[in-house]
Design goal:
single chain, alpha+beta, 2 domains, four-stranded antiparallel beta sheet, 6 strands, elongated, binds zinc ion
């Protein structure tokens, strides 16, 4: 994997500086446990950020339907990394749009959500970027995105609150309330 060596080195230094020198000096068992940790941690981080290597362009198909049908993808769970603390965020993402002349393939939305989540992103920016990408791909009559986030940086440290953070964003003609009912009944 490209860049993995340099990241492994950083994790080795981190373990040396923060762990060995401060808290676990002389703990032979833990030193053995941590032996391959820099490599594992580097690979995990690169996997969580693999969205940067992906193309966010999404293929669309012609749509000839009539009426305002809401196309949805509800409750897709993904993990992102918060850019403020570099800690994971679990996000349950739901999307709906009312097609005009084009629709996305059924597997395209979860893939797009996945790729976008594998970058450093704030929840609100993630939601607005997802909305923008859907808008660009299919020019719908309206689109809506709902994200329920569980932030490790809020839950495990700092406020240590187990609350969730909800984001709801929409553009154009779409019934936000109807969509939110669908999301709430499914989650
Ligand atoms: Zn954070």
């Amino acid at each position: 994997m490209r860049n993995v060596k340099s990241i492994v080195k950083v994790y080795e230094e981190l373990i040396d500086k923060l762990l060995k020198e401060r808290w676990i000096e002389g703990n032979k068992h833990l030193e053995r446990v941590l032996k391959r940790t820099p490599r594992r941690a580097a690979k995990a981080l690169l996997e969580l950020l693999e969205g940067y290597r992906k193309d966010f362009k999404v293929a669309a198909f012609p749509y000839a339907g009539t009426g305002d049908q809401l196309v949805t993808c509800i409750g897709h769970t993904v993990y992102t990394i918060c850019p403020h603390h570099l800690l994971p965020v679990e996000m349950v993402v739901s999307v709906g749009y009312v097609p005009r002349h084009k629709v996305l393939g059924l597997s395209k939305l979860p893939r797009l959500i996945d790729s976008l989540a594998h970058t450093l992103s704030l929840q609100e920016e993630f939601a607005s970027e997802l909305l923008r990408l859907i808008n660009t791909a299919v020019s719908p009559k309206g689109a809506v995105v709902h994200v329920r986030g569980k932030h490790s940086c809020v839950r495990a440290r700092g406020a240590r609150s187990t609350s969730t953070t909800e984001t709801l964003m929409a553009v154009g003609e779409v019934d936000k309330e109807e969509f939110l009912c669908l999301v709430r009944s499914a989650l």
